Amino acid sequence: MTPPLDPAIGRKILDWFRARGIGQTCPVCGGTTFDVSGLFAMRMVDQAGQPVPGVGATFAPLTCVGCGYSQLFSAAYMGLIPHLHPPTSGATP
Ligand SMILES: [Zn+2]
Fold first, then answer.
1. What is the sign, positive or negative, of the torsion defined by CA atoms of 74, 77, 81, 86?
2. What pTM was computed for the model?
């Protein structure tokens, strides 16, 4: 069972999505109702599929309740958790 989402974090997530117009219409089914269930961590793995200690990222998923299509947004870039690696101003080749 998933632990309940802290209401303050839930409000911050929804406010962040609304401020950017994200989640208004599902690109797959056209649905307009979405679920924000919490924060989820992903760990980086090496070429053998083994977890790399201390390397991972945390995401806030936005899920369409009509079809399940989900988008992941970086919790660090959303300001929900500290950046482990400060963002750079642009992509590097
Ligand atoms: Zn959908």
1. positive
2. 0.74
